[in-house]
């Protein structure tokens, strides 16, 4: 009798596995290739235990009040492309230059001040030197001691002047450009360059970079995500197995799309933003998320920021937060308010209307902080204040892992 | 006798045949291999000499002090004796000198910790700071910093700050903690390190101007940092001023004083009078406002060549500045100096009539005074080319002078070193060779001489390091010897005074030939662990004979044809398409590439600010080596390879 | 062997005899003595050294010895100067049958006296260059600067070896050359009135290289006494000269190197009328003059304000008008000339012709003076956006530059000429820049183009 029960259980499990109900998969989730040896072994778990944050990162999912800064408050432009909040300093990239709000005073930098281009795409603070690296559409600039120095493709090892993102792994400065990826060691002044001719990349159009303790991921427009293990020099590539540009045929089969708009990594999870939804990879499994099945504000995702295992999304249809089973979307409405929806496992569980809202639903960047989130929109820089009211601190704390 | 003739005569005949036929045969070989038709005579050695680092026989090591520091109680001075690879402790009371143990490297800047328990010395060859016990003069610790440190200082929070002249950055090390090193970008060739009286601000002065387009007004950088936070808090440019080797804060910490040269490289050199070529200034940086005033140290018709060391008396009354090129020092009235500095525009040309407002007196020193320290009622001067340290009353009266080592007989390179640093060979003693060639290197500027046309043939100043064996000289390859290069025409065109007498000229040439090329940056090509193989790939590109599509590159167009031999130059002329409308000729002497990484900018008129720009500026094509089939990553490999030569 | 030794000894003695003797021991001084009745402050040799003037050697440490006359046989002589090595002297002198002065040289004891061949006739003042050539002031065609003078004057450089003379100054009247430690010649330049100078004009101190290049104002361009003559540089580096009005007494003035445009300071002599001064000792002055109403003599002054006794009193009926110590001195710097007499052109580069505050400066008009003193307009050159201009100009003649506005009106009229030597590229900072200001570091826009050729007048 016991044996027959176990037989039925194993049959049922086997069927369930083949239907993918339980979400397990044997044999790897995506096309995996390495540059040097071609081995097909799956990558180990990205989130090595030592890479977990020491303390849980407290981050809010619910924001019930928004304030927006515009040109009237001192911004050089209302089209805000990137934001970096460091304590009381607020660094803002726009399509008309870089701005810093410090002590209530604004300072701005533009091409006249030596910035590569007035269109700033990303900011990165190098922890060793304290220098601020500024990616622009015409070169990579470094702001140090109040002075700007710009590196271009003609006068340095920068791969291409159109720099979409800059990040630092604590030592090197990585730049994702329209023709490949460069990494600069600021202490030696030397560069290393990667494109489709000397790495696993299929396309050189590098739109985004994320770094972990040992690996670098590059999100490529039309090329999925590639991963470089910095300690071994080995590459891996992650592509949409559907190879379908318009439709995600199967959920959770790999990156949701090959056109990657952004990548982010934290606490062992890699996030991929695309114009057709969101993907997440933990080293073994991919998960995909779309508006229809998860409750994201939209599928056209420009930016994803990872904080712990919570993802903050900037889409063309508003800003959203995804944490485990919970997805909260914030859509600005006419008259300055916000429609908030809360989904759990794809089911709508709550909706609210707030009287204040982000400046715009076109969101290019988010910067989550402690009890606040900065949102770069097409109409100003908005700050969302973590809810203490109807959503309540209990709600914020019970949902946060 | 007959037997000897039988052996000797054939040998003589063979030798004569080789001598007569050798050069034409070699020329024929070069023409066949390279396709050039303009080679008339050459030597095998030019292209086929042994590679690697040649030995450059310098002067016998002299006990020459260059950098000084004083212990906080004013009882002793410490001097770096570069060639002897030691530090000397000069006891001011007993008038004795004690040498440290051998350091195994060339010591440069040094500093005494505030409690007097340690002396830090920058070791340029080993990229370290050595910490010495000031009593025993033994090394008890070595701290790794960046490349080729020049200056060092103790700052607040137990921080040690070192200026890394070779890696263009500053190391901040927490000596009392985990010895972590923070690296902060500086200007070009960061050199002098000065600490504010409270230790909370450190200034690093970079010696060479930041590389920029040839027609722009150049400036060198003063980097201000917070040593405890390990952060750059400001970057102050000194317009048209450079070659600063020392800096000092005023006692209230509000001002930084930086002696420097003001060079008018953008003006055609038509005369030397009135500071037309170069004049000396004292930069006064107001740290509250960030403004710089450049006050003249020249008086009209009385120069103050190559200002080097500066010291401020602790009461804030006087400033002493040494003139390395004219063997004197000056005492300046600090309150008057600051009053004049207030309201002076930073880029205002100097009014030499102002100098008398604050110049109290000048007093003579021995040869080539470099560093100056003021301590406890005494002004001490390192007299480098006199191998002595001297100390004076605040009014400039000599108290005593001590040699810091056993005397070494003068030889030609040492005598040439004296000539190189002596400004008396120029009109009104206005400048010396060093004024454009610090330590025999280059100041990175372009110049316009009138002899080849005003506004025409604007040429980049070249490094003299490693020039031995690279004749001919000048960008157009006009001068077959260094004697010709530095001869009467040089006096007519530049120094505007008498030419060097024959003995001094020979000594000067011996000195120049003793200078080794700049040491290649050992960290060049390193990008954490990622750029493995970059320099190897770069070398393959440099030496390649076929394009990526397999087609052959003609011999004359290969990098390794012209840039061959031990100096990476075949010592002939070539036209690589770099001539401009203002150049008389587009053929230039192939530059030698040893140490090229530190010789920015590039090409005869300095138009390429970086190595990349040699090929990325518009219009280059394949005229300067075949590069158009390379992609950006391959160009980067080539650049990384060149940086390591 | 004995024959060889004898021969060698003989050659040695001949050669030794040929060498000029070293300066004599003691403290030898050459004094110029003039008849006591003749008093004038005008600078021409006829006026300074009238008939009966003579030069004599005296040892200040043996004043009891008689003066050794060096100009015997001459009608007039004076103004001796000594070569750098102290072994030879030069002076101006006139033989009884001549009506013009010539340059004469002699050894340090007055022997081996001969006329300097190749020197222009009528020499007024002499200076010895470090390479053995002499700078000589001589009369040239042109109007005399001051009433009472007979001609215009210019400086020439004479080579004793080649027995040739080259004129090196062309500014109107240049006199009283002396050599500075930096190798330049300091001299008295006549300038017309204006720019703070008295109506009728006055002298200023100028410097020029021995080849006539780079002439520049040193002191007194904007005023001071009308006469500034006999400039000399002390061993300490200051420049002293005698100044005054043509009909008045002269006084010794000192110009420091610090502020040349400040008025020079009177040397605060104890009411001494100084006629001439020469450097002596480590930083003292040997001054020829007289106390008011008193005898003429020589004084050695260490510091301004010194009160000392005369070291020498003039003989009865004579005045000491000049004295110089016969000794070697530090060799001034030399100068290798780029001037090429075959070249028919020179160039003039101005960095910024716009005076401060004058915004509508548009162009510069260049004129040249003819030999008869008339001016001929050669042409105009537009100022570049930074105020610079660069022209090819005729050489060896006075050039005048006027600053014009766009409508042609004259903004600044230059009354003092400049000149350019063949193949010289003459640079100037600006028309009215402060002489103590260094130029700014920027590339003048005018050099980016070919220089405008103004050697011949433009048509139309």
General description of the model:
The complex is a heterotrimer of chains A (401), B (645) and C (460). In chain A, 53% of the residues are buried. Chain A has helices at 2-19, 291-294, 392-399, and strands at 63-69, 80-86, 89-94, 97-102, 105-109, 120-125, 132-136, 139-144, 147-151, 163-168, 173-177, 180-185, 190-194, 206-211, 215-220, 224-229, 235-238, 260-266, 269-274, 277-281, 286-289, 301-307, 310-315, 318-323, 326-332, 338-344, 347-354, 363-368, 372-377, 380-386. Chain A is mainly beta. In chain A, β28 and β29 form a beta hairpin. The longest helix of chain A is centred in the first third of the chain and has 18 residues, at 2-19. In chain A, the strands form seven sheets. Chain A has a six-stranded antiparallel β-sheet with strand order 22-23-24-25-26-27, with no helix packed on it. Chain A has a four-stranded antiparallel β-sheet with strand order 1-30-29-28, with no helix packed on it. The model of chain A is unreliable at 20-56 (pLDDT under 50). By secondary structure, chain B is an alpha+beta fold. Chain B contains twelve helices and 33 strands. In chain B, the strands form nine sheets. In chain B, strands 17, 18, 19, 20 and 21 form a five-stranded antiparallel β-sheet that branches. In chain B, strands 1-2-3-4 form a four-stranded antiparallel β-sheet, with no helix packed on it. In chain B, strands 5-6-7-8 form a four-stranded antiparallel β-sheet, with no helix packed on it. The radius of gyration of chain B is 26 Å and the shape is globular. Chain C is mostly beta strands and 460 residues long. Helix content of chain C is 5%, strand content 39%. Chain C is built from two helices and 32 strands. Chain C has helices spanning 2-18, 45-48; strands at residues 28-35, 54-59, 68-69, 76-82, 88-94, 102-107, 114-115, 125-128, 134-140, 152-159, 164-167, 174-179, 185-191, 202-208, 216-219, 227-233, 239-244, 250-255, 265-266, 273-280, 284-290, 296-301, 312-313, 318-325, 346-350, 361-369, 375-382, 389-393, 399-405, 410-412, 425-428, 452-453. In chain C, the strands form eight sheets. In chain C, strands 3-2-1-24 form a four-stranded antiparallel β-sheet, with no helix packed on it. In chain C, strands 4-5-6-7 form a four-stranded antiparallel β-sheet. Chain C has a four-stranded antiparallel β-sheet with strand order 8-9-10-11, with no helix packed on it. The chains are: A mainly beta (401), B alpha+beta (645), C mainly beta (460). Chains in contact: A-B, B-C. The interface between A and B is large, with 38 and 43 residues.
């Amino acid at each position: 009798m016991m044996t027959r029960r176990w037989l039925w259980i194993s049959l049922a499990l086997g069927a369930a596995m083949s239907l993918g109900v339980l979400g397990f998969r044997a044999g790897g989730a995506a096309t995996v290739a390495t540059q040097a040896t071609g081995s097909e072994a799956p990558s180990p778990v990205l989130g090595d235990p030592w890479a977990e944050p020491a303390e849980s990162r407290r981050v809010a999912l619910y924001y019930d009040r928004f304030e927006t800064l515009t040109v009237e408050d001192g911004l050089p432009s209302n089209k805000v492309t990137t934001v970096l909040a460091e304590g009381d300093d607020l660094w803002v990239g726009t399509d008309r230059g870089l701005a810093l709000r410090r002590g209530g005073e604004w300072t701005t930098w533009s091409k006249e001040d030596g910035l590569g281009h007035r269109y700033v795409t990303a900011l990165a603070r190098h922890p060793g030197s304290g220098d601020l690296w500024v990616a622009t559409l015409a070169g990579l600039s470094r702001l140090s001691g109040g002075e700007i120095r710009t590196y271009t493709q003609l006068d340095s090892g920068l791969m291409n002047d159109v720099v979409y993102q800059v990040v630092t792994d604590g030592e090197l400065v990585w730049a994702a450009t329209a023709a490949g990826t460069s990494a600069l060691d600021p202490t030696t002044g030397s560069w290393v360059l990667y494109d489709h001719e000397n790495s696993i990349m299929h396309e050189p159009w590098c739109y985004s970079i994320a770094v972990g303790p040992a690996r670098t991921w590059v999100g490529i427009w039309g090329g999925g995500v590639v991963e470089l293990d910095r300690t071994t020099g080995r590459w891996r590539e992650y592509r949409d197995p559907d190879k379908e540009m318009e439709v995600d045929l199967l959920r959770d089969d790999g990156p949701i799309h090959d056109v990657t708009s952004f990548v982010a990594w934290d606490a062992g999870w890699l996030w991929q933003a695309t114009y057709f939804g969101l993907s997440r990879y933990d080293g073994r499994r991919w998960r995909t998320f779309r508006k229809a099945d998860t409750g994201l504000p939209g599928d056209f995702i420009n930016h994803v920021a990872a904080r712990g295992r919570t993802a903050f999304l900037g889409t063309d249809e508003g800003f959203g937060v995804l944490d485990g089973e919970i997805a909260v979307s914030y859509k600005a409405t006419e008259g300055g308010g916000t429609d908030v929806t809360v989904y759990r496992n794809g089911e709508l569980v709550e909706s609210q209307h707030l009287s204040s809202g982000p400046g715009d639903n076109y969101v290019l960047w988010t910067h989550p902080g402690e009890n606040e989130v900065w949102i770069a929109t097409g109409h100003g820089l908005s700050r969302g204040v973590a809810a203490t009211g109807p959503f309540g601190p209990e709600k914020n704390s019970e949902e946060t892992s | 006798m007959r037997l000897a003739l039988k052996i000797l005569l054939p040998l003589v005949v063979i030798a004569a045949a080789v001598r007569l036929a050798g050069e034409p045969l070699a020329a024929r070989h070069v023409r066949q291999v390279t396709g050039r038709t303009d080679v008339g005579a050459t030597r095998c050695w030019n292209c086929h000499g042994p590679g690697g680092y040649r030995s450059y026989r310098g002067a016998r090591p002299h006990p020459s002090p260059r950098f000084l520091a004083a212990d906080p109680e004013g009882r002793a001075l410490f001097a770096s004796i570069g060639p002897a690879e030691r530090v000397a402790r000069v006891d001011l009371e007993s008038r004795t000198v004690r040498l440290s143990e051998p350091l195994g490297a060339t010591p440069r800047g040094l500093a005494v910790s505030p409690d007097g328990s340690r002396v830090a010395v920058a070791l340029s060859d080993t990229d370290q700071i050595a910490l010495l016990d000031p009593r025993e003069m033994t090394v008890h610790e070595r701290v790794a910093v960046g490349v080729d440190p020049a200056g060092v200082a103790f700052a607040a929070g137990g921080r040690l700050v070192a200026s890394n002249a070779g890696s263009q950055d500053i190391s901040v090390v927490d000596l009392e903690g985990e010895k972590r090193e923070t690296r902060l970008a500086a200007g070009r060739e960061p050199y002098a390190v000065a600490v504010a009286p409270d230790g909370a601000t450190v200034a690093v002065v970079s010696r060479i101007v930041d590389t920029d387009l040839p027609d722009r007004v150049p400036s060198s950088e003063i980097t201000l940092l917070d040593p405890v936070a390990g952060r750059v808090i400001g970057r102050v440019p000194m317009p048209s001023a450079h070659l600063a080797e020392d800096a000092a804060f005023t006692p209230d910490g509000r001002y930084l004083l930086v002696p420097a040269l003001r060079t008018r490289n953008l003006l055609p050199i038509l005369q030397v009078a009135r500071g037309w070529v170069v004049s000396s200034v004292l930069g006064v940086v107001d740290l509250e406002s960030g403004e710089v005033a450049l006050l003249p140290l020249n008086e009209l018709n009385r120069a103050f060549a190559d200002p080097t060391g500066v010291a401020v008396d602790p009461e804030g009354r006087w400033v002493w500045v040494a003139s390395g090129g004219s063997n004197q020092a000056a005492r300046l009235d600090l309150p008057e100096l600051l009053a004049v500095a207030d309201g002076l525009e930073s880029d205002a040309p100097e009014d030499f009539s102002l100098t008398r407002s604050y110049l109290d007196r000048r007093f003579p020193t021995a040869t080539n005074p470099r560093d100056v320290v003021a301590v406890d009622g005494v002004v001490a001067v390192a007299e480098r080319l006199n191998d002595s340290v001297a100390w004076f009353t605040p009014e400039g009266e000599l108290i005593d002078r001590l040699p810091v080592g056993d005397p070494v007989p003068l030889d030609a390179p040492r005598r040439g070193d004296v000539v190189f640093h002596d400004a008396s060979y120029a009109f009104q003693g206005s400048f010396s060779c060093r004024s454009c060639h610090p330590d025999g290197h280059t100041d990175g500027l372009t110049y316009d001489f009138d002899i080849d046309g005003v506004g025409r043939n604007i040429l980049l100043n070249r490094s003299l390091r490693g020039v031995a064996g690279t004749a001919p000289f000048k960008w157009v390859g006009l001068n077959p010897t260094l004697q010709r290069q530095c001869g009467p025409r040089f006096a007519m065109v530049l120094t505007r005074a008498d030419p060097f007498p024959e003995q001094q000229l020979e000594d000067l040439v011996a000195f120049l030939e003793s200078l080794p090329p700049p040491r290649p940056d050992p960290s060049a090509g390193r990008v954490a662990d990622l750029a493995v193989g970059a320099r190897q790939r770069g070398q393959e590109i440099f030496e390649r004979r076929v394009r990526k599509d397999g087609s052959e590159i003609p011999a004359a167009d290969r990098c390794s044809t012209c840039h061959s031999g031990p100096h990476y130059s075949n010592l002939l002329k070539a036209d690589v398409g770099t001539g401009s409308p203002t150049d008389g000729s587009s053929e230039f002497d192939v530059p030698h590439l040893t140490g090229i990484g530190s010789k920015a900018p590039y090409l005869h008129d300095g138009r390429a600010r970086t190595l990349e720009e040699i090929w990325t500026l518009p219009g280059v094509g394949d005229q300067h080596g075949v590069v158009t089939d390379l992609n950006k990553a391959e160009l980067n490999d080539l650049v990384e390879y060149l940086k390591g030569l | 062997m004995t024959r060889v030794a004898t021969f060698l000894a003989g050659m040695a003695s001949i050669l030794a005899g040929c060498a000029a003797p070293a300066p004599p021991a003691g403290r030898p001084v050459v004094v110029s003595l003039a008849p006591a009745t003749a008093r004038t402050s005008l600078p021409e040799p006829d006026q300074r050294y009238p008939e009966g003037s003579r030069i004599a050697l005296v040892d200040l440490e043996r004043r009891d010895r008689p003066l050794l006359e060096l100009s015997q046989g001459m009608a007039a002589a004076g103004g001796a100067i000594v070569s750098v090595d102290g072994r030879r002297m030069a002076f101006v002198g006139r033989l009884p049958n001549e009506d013009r002065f010539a340059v004469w040289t002699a050894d340090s004891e007055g022997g081996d006296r001969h006329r300097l061949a190749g020197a222009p006739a009528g020499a007024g003042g002499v200076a010895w260059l470090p390479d053995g050539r002499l700078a000589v002031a001589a009369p040239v065609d042109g109007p005399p600067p001051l009433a009472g003078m007979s001609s215009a004057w210019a400086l020439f450089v004479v080579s004793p070896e080649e027995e040739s003379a080259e004129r090196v100054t062309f500014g109107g009247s240049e006199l009283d050359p002396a050599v500075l430690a930096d190798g330049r010649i300091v001299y008295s330049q006549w300038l017309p009135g204006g720019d703070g100078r008295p109506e009728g004009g006055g002298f200023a101190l100028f410097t020029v290289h021995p080849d006539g290049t780079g002439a520049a104002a040193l002191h007194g361009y904007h005023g001071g006494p009308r006469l500034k003559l006999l400039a000399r540089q002390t061993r300490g580096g200051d420049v002293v000269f005698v100044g005054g009005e043509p009909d008045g007494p002269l006084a010794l003035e000192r110009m420091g190197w610090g502020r040349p445009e400040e008025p020079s300071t009177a040397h605060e002599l104890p009411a001494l009328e100084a006629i001439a001064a020469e450097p002596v000792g480590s930083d003292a002055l040997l001054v020829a003059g007289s106390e008011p109403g008193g005898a003429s003599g020589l004084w050695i002054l260490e510091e301004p304000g010194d009160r000392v006794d005369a070291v020498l009193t003039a003989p009865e009926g004579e005045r000491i008008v000049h004295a110089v110590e016969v000794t070697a001195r530090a060799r001034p710097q030399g100068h290798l000339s780029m001037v090429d007499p075959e070249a028919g052109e020179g160039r003039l580069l101005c960095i910024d012709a716009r005076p401060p505050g004058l915004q509508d400066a548009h162009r510069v008009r260049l004129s040249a003076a003819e030999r008869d003193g008339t001016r001929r307009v050669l042409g105009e050159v537009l100022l570049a956006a930074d105020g610079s201009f660069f022209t090819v100009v005729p050489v060896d003649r006075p050039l005048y530059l006027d600053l014009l506005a766009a409508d042609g009106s004259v903004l600044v009229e230059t009354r003092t000429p400049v000149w350019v030597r063949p193949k010289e590229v003459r640079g100037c900072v600006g028309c009215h820049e402060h002489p103590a200001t260094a130029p700014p570091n920027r590339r003048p826009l005018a050099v980016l183009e070919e220089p405008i050729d103004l050697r011949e007048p433009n048509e139309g």
